[in-house]
Amino acid sequence: MNRRRFISQTSLTSLATLLGADIVFGHKIPEGYTPIALQDPDPFKLFNKDTEMSILNNKPWNIEAKAHLLDEKITSNKYMFVRNNGLIPENIDAKNWTLTIDGESVSKSKTYTLEELKSKFQHYTYQLTLECGGNGRSEFNPPAKGNQWTVGAVSCANWTGVRLKDVLQDLGFKSNAVYIGYHAADIHLSRNPEKEPISRGVPMEKALQDETLLAFQMNGKDIPLAHGYPLRLIAGGWPASASGKWVNRISIRDKVHDGAKMTGTSYRVPCEPVAPGEKVVDEDMCIIESMPVKSLITYPKSGAIIKKGKALNIRGHAWAGELEVQNMEYSIDFGSTWHSCALQKPVNRLAWQHFSASIDHFPKKGYYEVWARAKDSRGKSQPMLLPGWNPKGYLNNACHRIAIKVT
Ligand SMILES: Nc1nc2c(c(=O)[nH]1)N[C@H]1C(S)=C(S)[C@@H](COP(=O)(O)O)O[C@H]1N2
Ligand SMILES: [Mo]
To answer: Ligand 1 in contact with 80 (CB < 6 A)?
Structure first.
């Protein structure tokens, strides 16, 4: 809708109807001014998100879930976080969508239509965990710039597509191949067509894993627009920034990919631990690869009240990047003692795992916290409070905690 025309043709009362509330100082609105609430489309409707989702930013759109919204075993669209670095591509024509494979390590670049990809290669479906490298950033101190994600920038949906390795092997690549880098159709915030909002990638070894997909479906349907329609790279278990949405080109590089947000401090952490607030030079920052072990209590919602003598049933998910979660524990005494949870095997590699426990040993009425802690298959556990501080606030895999009252 055209904002300017809209304001001049609409009376205050109809503005109020649109807002669903009286505009108390409506007669003081300057000429030509549009109330903020009407300037942007409703993101919940626009992206089909649940209204309990939290909007962190609208330019670009960044939306996160709350822990209890992620209770489903397979994350549905309405609870899936959105992380955009630029503007969602406009006028997508899926019928004429193509994917070009190029780069120093291919002899001759090749372009596949989306239809060709779908008909030529076998389809696979995997449930894959995608967590933003900055999930949990809001807890770091000194604070890090960027979206202040709490716990909800993680999802685990079913992704269907063709294996990237099948496509790369169809074309063939040179033995000097080191990395792949994706390029996508989204638009830089400056609208400068020369600039890419983000262009990241993974080493060949990750690119050639069975589960690394060029996906065209999420949860059995076309990928929703905000999540990369009509074609998306999916590299589960790694920072989700490696999973390029709206992908239209993949370069096979003879060096570490150097696209937008691959270099400098983006998606990198100090190679060696540093003290909070310490300055780190670019050369001492290392690319994040597999994500660390983490878990989330998705039921009950923090603040639940139970009757003394009744058991509290908790459940949630745990994941560990490239690794499996080996065990899952909970504590009701601020981490002094731990008890095991039941933990399921992942449905496939790189899928999150479900845990549950029935807690019936609250000694008396009062305030408690339930803390949950996962351990990966190499014996590494989540830190109880905060892990190593880093300048950009990545990889906060601290234990998730919920408040409980026994009355
Ligand atoms: N083309 C493109 N791909 C992208 C991004 C983007 O801004 N543009 N954001 C990345 C980041 S940082 C994350 S965390 C995930 C978010 O995926 P989602 O929005 O589907 O949850 O997409 C990644 N892929
Ligand atoms: Mo991200």
So the answer is: yes
